[in-house]
C-alpha cells in the first residue's frame, strides 16, 4: 500500500482533470492524478467524433482526444493512478485521499474533477445504439442528424433546450415525456410549442430503441395511461432526463448546491474547504462541454498554485 504526501492530488480525469494536471505539472508541482479504475477520461471516452473542440478542424474521436490529453499531462511529469477514490478527509493543511485498492495519499491541495454521469433510460437497445443514434448531448451530436427524424426524451429545461437546438437540424423533433405537464420553465415550453418543427408525445415512455446495420431507426413507445404501444421513426434519440454529479465519495466533506453539484466561491474554483478546488461537470450543471471543462481545469490549477504559494492573488502566484 502507498502512503505518500503530494503537493496536489487531482481526483478525476477528463478534460478538466487532465488540463489541471498539465498546468500543475508545468509549474513544477508534480501532481498525482487519480483517474479512476473503470471510466478514466470522463464522458468523452464514450463519444464518437468530436467536431467542436478547438484545434481539430477535421474532428477527433473522443477517446483519442482523452489519450492525447493524458500523454500531454504525463509528458510534463504528472503521475497517474488508475484507481477510484472511496473516501477523503479534507480538513486541515494536509488532506487525505483513500483509494479503493487501499492506497492512501496526503496532499497540501486537492482538485476535484470527477464530473457527472448522465441518467439513462435503462431500456433495451439504449446501450447497443449508444453513439450510433442514442446520444446524451445535443450540441455534440445534433449536426450528425441533419434532415433526419429526432426524438428527445425528457420534460425539464435540458430537454426543451436540446429540442430547440435540434430543431435546426432534424427533419422533425418529437419530445417524449412521461407526464402531461412539464418541469421546464414556461418560456422554454412556450418557445417549443411555437416551433413548427417540434411536436409532443405526452404520458408516454420509451420502451425500446430499435435499429438495423448498427444504427438506430426507431423507438417503441408506451402510453402510461392507456397502455397503447406504438413505434416512432427516429435516427437520433437524445436522452435528456438529467445528470448526477459524482460526489458520493466526498461523504459530505464539501458544500453542495441544491442540485448536488459542488458549490464554489464566486467566480473562482475554490470550494467550501481551504485548499480544495473543483472544476468541470462536477460543478457545472449548465454548459457541460469539454472545452469549458478544460478551461475550468486551468482555472483550478491557477487557484491551487495561488493557494500553495500562500497568496490570494493569482497573478502574484504566477510571477
From TrEMBL:
SUPFAM superfamilies (alphabetical): FAD/NAD(P)-binding domain
Entry keyword annotation includes DNA damage: no
Pfam families for this protein: Pyr_redox_2
A single BP term in Gene Ontology: removal of superoxide radicals
Cofactor binding remark: Binds 1 FAD per subunit.
FAD/NAD(P)-binding domain segment(s): 7-297
Molecular function (Gene Ontology), one example: thioredoxin-disulfide reductase (NADPH) activity
Cofactor(s) named in the record: FAD
Keywords: Disulfide bond, FAD, Flavoprotein, NADP, Oxidoreductase, Redox-active center
Entry EC no(s): 1.8.1.9
InterPro entries: FAD/NAD-bd_sf (IPR036188), FAD/NAD-binding_dom (IPR023753), Ferredoxin-NADP_redctase_2 (IPR050097), Pyr_nucl-diS_OxRdtase_2_AS (IPR008255), Thioredox_Rdtase (IPR005982)
Keyword Flavoprotein recorded: yes
Catalytic activity entry: [thioredoxin]-dithiol + NADP(+) = [thioredoxin]-disulfide + NADPH + H(+)
GO CC annotation terms, alphabetical: cytoplasm
Family: Belongs to the class-II pyridine nucleotide-disulfide oxidoreductase family.
Subunit architecture: Homodimer.
Identification of the protein by name: Thioredoxin reductase
Organism: Bifidobacterium aemilianum
Amino acid at each position: 500500500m502507498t502512503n505518500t504526501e503530494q503537493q496536489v492530488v487531482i481526483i478525476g480525469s477528463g478534460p478538466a482533470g487532465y488540463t489541471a494536471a498539465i498546468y500543475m505539472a508545468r509549474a513544477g508541482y508534480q501532481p498525482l492524478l487519480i483517474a479512476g479504475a473503470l471510466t478514466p477520461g470522463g464522458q468523452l471516452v464514450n463519444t464518437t467524433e468530436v467536431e467542436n473542440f478547438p484545434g481539430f478542424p477535421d474532428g477527433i474521436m473522443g477517446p483519442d482526444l482523452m489519450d492525447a490529453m493524458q500523454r500531454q499531462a504525463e509528458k510534463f511529469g504528472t503521475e497517474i493512478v488508475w484507481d477510484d477514490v472511496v473516501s477523503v478527509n479534507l480538513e486541515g493543511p494536509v488532506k487525505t485521499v483513500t483509494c479503493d485498492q487501499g492506497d492512501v495519499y496526503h496532499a497540501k491541495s486537492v482538485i476535484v474533477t470527477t464530473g457527472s454521469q448522465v441518467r439513462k433510460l435503462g431500456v433495451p437497445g439504449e446501450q447497443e445504439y449508444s453513439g450510433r443514434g442514442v446520444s446524451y448531448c445535443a450540441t455534440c451530436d445534433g449536426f450528425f442528424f441533419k434532415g433526419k427524424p429526432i426524438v428527445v426524451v425528457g420534460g425539464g429545461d435540458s430537454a426543451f433546450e436540446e429540442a430547440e437546438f435540434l430543431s435546426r437540424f432534424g427533419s422533425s423533433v418529437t419530445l417524449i415525456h412521461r407526464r402531461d405537464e412539464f418541469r421546464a420553465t414556461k418560456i422554454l415550453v412556450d418557445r417549443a410549442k411555437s416551433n413548427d418543427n417540434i411536436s409532443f408525445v405526452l404520458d408516454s415512455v420509451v420502451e425500446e430503441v430499435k435499429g438495423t446495420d448498427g444504427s438506430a431507426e426507431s423507438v417503441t413507445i408506451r402510453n402510461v395511461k392507456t397502455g397503447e404501444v406504438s413505434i416512432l421513426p427516429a435516427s437520433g434519440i437524445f436522452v435528456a432526463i438529467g445528470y448526477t454529479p459524482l460526489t458520493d465519495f466526498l461523504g459530505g466533506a464539501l458544500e453542495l448546491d441544491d442540485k448536488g453539484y459542488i458549490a464554489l466561491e464566486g467566480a473562482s474554483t475554490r470550494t467550501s474547504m481551504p485548499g480544495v478546488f473543483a472544476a468541470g461537470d462536477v460543478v457545472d450543471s449548465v454548459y457541460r462541454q469539454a472545452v469549458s471543462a478544460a478551461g475550468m481545469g486551468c482555472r483550478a490549477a491557477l487557484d491551487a498554485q495561488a493557494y500553495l504559494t500562500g497568496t490570494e492573488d493569482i497573478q502574484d502566484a504566477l510571477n
